[in-house]
């Protein structure tokens, strides 16, 4: 009893500190994701230089803090045509997050819808959707991307659509499986017995109970999409070379790996931290969203 | 004057077996009975005899393969799914497993309120009042209604399930082994609540159980099921004092003696329940029946009245009848 009063009277700051102490992974994930979102939104105000402005005088400049000649003006160094690496990384967050979030939005919506139809209504719809998913799984993603890109040309919107249309399978299969297990639960039968319509049962009883695996898969997918965008751009199939993107920076830097390591290392770190952030956030959300885990 | 609330005529529920178009698992096979208003009909039988399937078919959670279910004289098996949904207001079910029958992500208040929302009963305020009333009847406090199901014990959860079933004022309640998942001490508590509610609200129960003593305590009439069929149905006292079917006799002989000096013969059945996907020919019980005759292996007996309110499905008694005639 006294302990309860103690916690109530302590200052707000200590509650926040306690929350951080209790949820270290969640907080780290949140900070990483949040900071990349801030970078993407406010890139023009945060970036110290114009990401497109080449200056041959600063070509392959070392990062300022290890350069002892005093020539370098860039915090993370300059790239092969003398653009500020830090500014380009900040601008690059835009492409990565756009691809990750929009791609997941498309595949999540499509996959959830088809997964519910297949799992809940079953019968021939289930067969049809699952065969379609298997056909989709049989096609290698990179191959598909190469074919579509070479027909319709490159561009960020095409990457997003291709990702969305290929990765619905993961969501659909996950949700279908969860629903098949859930349908046998008595509370779903009970929902029917107390007069619930199919639509209501899906919205109120099924979706909330499959939400946490979907959410976890979504955060993992964002991470994967960021990596895939980087790989596609690395292969020259992604965004235009003038647009700063982490994958493109990695691709451009590979000739200078031995002489100017920073051009490849810093974009790589940016990808790693963002992906890690989404993964940590996903793990944490899964635990938080389970009502049985709350104390 | 008794009028039947529920009439079941030749109800069948077959499940198709995987990988076959012609073979079926006959979970409920040609069952007929009536339940009168205000009565408690007990259905007993061992695991896998089709009790629960029958209960769920009665309230249309499963579509029957054949047969009629008449609720107040209206055949509900031919209604459209929309009409069936409306009918559910009058018939509700209490599930066996209180840990699986409540949505873990909904607060108890929402769980109990849901039928009212589904059937569009009352305004928001009226619904709130109704939920509070029902919660009081089953012994839940207002504070408890704001909690999640996982914060409750099995008995409390079952009471939430009962409240949910009762909130829309149904006439018929199918109780599918409502106490078999509970501790014995909690069983009587839940049974007493159900009994009080029956008196208060003039409910009719179909009480499915495998526990003979619970059924004896709770029911007016008892039907005994074996392999998807009702083999004997009679008044509680008649059935316990004067069982006719060999299967009923064997079941009753398994009850513990109420007095240590009481003489009692234990009839032990041989073998296991046959596979319901491939039931024996003739009388399905003939493989385990101590009184099996040659004719039992080929002729299927039907449920016949042998005295007032006592029906049995056994060739032993049909023979007798014919011989007398």
UniProtKB/TrEMBL annotation, chain A:
Pfam families given in the database record: BPD_transp_1 (PF00528), OppC_N (PF12911)
Main location: membrane
CDD domains: TM_PBP2
PROSITE patterns: ABC_TM1
Transmembrane feature ranges: 27-49, 95-121, 141-169, 214-239, 259-281
SUPFAM superfamilies on file: MetI-like (SSF161098)
Subcellular location: Cell membrane
Domain ABC transmembrane type-1: 93-282
Cellular component terms (Gene Ontology): plasma membrane
Topology in membrane: Multi-pass membrane protein
Gene3D superfamilies: MetI-like
Keywords attached to this entry: Cell membrane, Membrane, Transmembrane, Transmembrane helix, Transport
GO terms, biological process: transmembrane transport
Similarity comment: family membership: Belongs to the binding-protein-dependent transport system permease family.
Matching PANTHER family: D,D-DIPEPTIDE TRANSPORT SYSTEM PERMEASE PROTEIN DDPC-RELATED, OLIGOPEPTIDE TRANSPORT SYSTEM PERMEASE PROTEIN APPC
Annotated protein name in UniProt: ABC transporter permease
From TrEMBL, chain B:
Biological process (GO), any one: peptide transport
Alphabetical UniProt keywords: ATP-binding, Nucleotide-binding, Transport
Family matches, as SUPFAM superfamilies: P-loop containing nucleoside triphosphate hydrolases
Classification via Gene3D superfamilies: P-loop containing nucleotide triphosphate hydrolases
Key word Nucleotide-binding present: yes
Keyword match Nucleotide-binding: yes
Pfam families in UniProt: ABC_tran, oligo_HPY
Annotated ABC transporter domain residues: 6-252
Stored InterPro entries: AAA+_ATPase, ABC_transp_ATP-bind, ABC_transporter-like_ATP-bd, ABC_transporter-like_CS, Oligopep_ABC_C, P-loop_NTPase
GO molecular function list: ATP binding; ATP hydrolysis activity
Similarity-based family: Belongs to the ABC transporter superfamily.
Identification of the protein by name: Dipeptide ABC transporter ATP-binding protein
């Amino acid at each position: 009893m006294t302990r309860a009063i103690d916690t109530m009277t302590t200052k707000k700051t200590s509650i926040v500190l306690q929350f951080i102490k209790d949820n270290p992974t969640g907080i780290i994930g949140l900070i990483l994701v949040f900071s990349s979102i801030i970078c993407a939104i406010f890139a023009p105000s945060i970036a110290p230089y114009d990401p497109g402005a080449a200056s041959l005088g600063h070509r392959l400049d070392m990062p300022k803090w290890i350069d002892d000649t005093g020539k370098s003006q860039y915090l993370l160094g300059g790239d092969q045509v003398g653009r500020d690496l830090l500014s380009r990384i900040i601008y690059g967050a835009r492409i990565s997050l756009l691809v990750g979030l929009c791609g997941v939005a498309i595949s999540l919506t499509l996959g959830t819808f088809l997964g519910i139809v297949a799992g809940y209504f079953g019968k021939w719809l289930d067969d049809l959707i699952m065969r379609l998913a298997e056909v989709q799984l049989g096609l290698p993603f990179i191959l598909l991307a190469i074919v579509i890109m070479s027909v319709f040309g490159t561009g960020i919107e095409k990457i997003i659509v291709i990702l969305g249309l290929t990765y619905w399978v993961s969501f659909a299969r996950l949700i279908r499986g969860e629903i098949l297990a859930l349908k046998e639960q008595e509370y779903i039968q009970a929902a029917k017995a107390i007069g619930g319509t199919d639509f209501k049962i899906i919205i109120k009883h099924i979706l909330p109970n499959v939400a946490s695996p979907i959410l976890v898969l979504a955060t993992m997918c964002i991470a994967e999409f960021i990596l895939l965008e980087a790989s596609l751009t690395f292969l020259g199939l992604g965004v235009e070379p003038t647009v700063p993107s982490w994958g493109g920076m990695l691709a451009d830097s590979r000739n200078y790996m031995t002489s100017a390591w920073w051009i490849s290392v810093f974009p790589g770190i940016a990808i790693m931290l963002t992906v890690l952030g989404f993964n940590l956030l996903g793990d944490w959300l899964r635990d938080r969203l389970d009502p049985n885990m709350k104390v | 004057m008794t009028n039947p609330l529920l009439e079941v005529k030749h109800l069948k529920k077959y499940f198709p077996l995987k990988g076959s178009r012609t073979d079926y698992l006959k979970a409920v096979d040609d069952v007929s009975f009536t339940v009168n208003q205000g009565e408690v009909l007990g259905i007993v039988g061992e695991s896998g005899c089709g009790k629960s399937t029958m209960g769920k078919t009665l309230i249309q959670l499963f579509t029957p393969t054949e047969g009629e279910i008449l609720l107040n004289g209206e055949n509900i098996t031919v209604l459209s799914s929309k009409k069936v949904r409306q009918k559910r207001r009058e018939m509700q079910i209490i599930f066996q497993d209180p840990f699986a029958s409540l949505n873990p992500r909904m607060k108890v208040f929402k769980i109990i309120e849901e039928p009212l929302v589904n059937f569009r009963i009352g305004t928001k305020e009226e619904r709130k009042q109704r939920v509070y009333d029902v919660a009081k009847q089953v012994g839940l406090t207002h504070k408890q209604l704001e909690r999640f199901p996982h914060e409750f014990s099995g008995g409390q959860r079952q009471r939430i399930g009962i409240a949910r079933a009762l909130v829309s004022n149904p006439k018929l309640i199918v109780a599918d082994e409502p106490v078999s998942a509970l501790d014995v001490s909690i069983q009587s508590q839940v049974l007493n609540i159900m009994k009080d509610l029956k008196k208060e609200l003039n409910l009719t129960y179909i009480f499915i159980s495998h526990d003979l003593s619970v059924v004896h305590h709770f029911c007016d009439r008892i039907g005994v099921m074996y392999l998807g069929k009702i083999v004997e149905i009679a008044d509680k006292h008649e059935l316990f004092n004067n069982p006719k079917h060999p299967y009923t006799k064997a079941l009753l002989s398994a009850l513990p003696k109420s007095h240590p000096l009481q003489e009692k013969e234990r009839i032990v059945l041989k073998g296991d329940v046959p596979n319901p996907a491939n039931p024996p020919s003739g009388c399905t019980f003939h493989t385990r029946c101590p009184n099996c005759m040659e004719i039992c292996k080929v002729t299927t007996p039907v449920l016949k009245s042998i005295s007032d309110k006592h029906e049995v499905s056994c060739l032993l008694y049909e023979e007798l009848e014919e011989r007398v005639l």
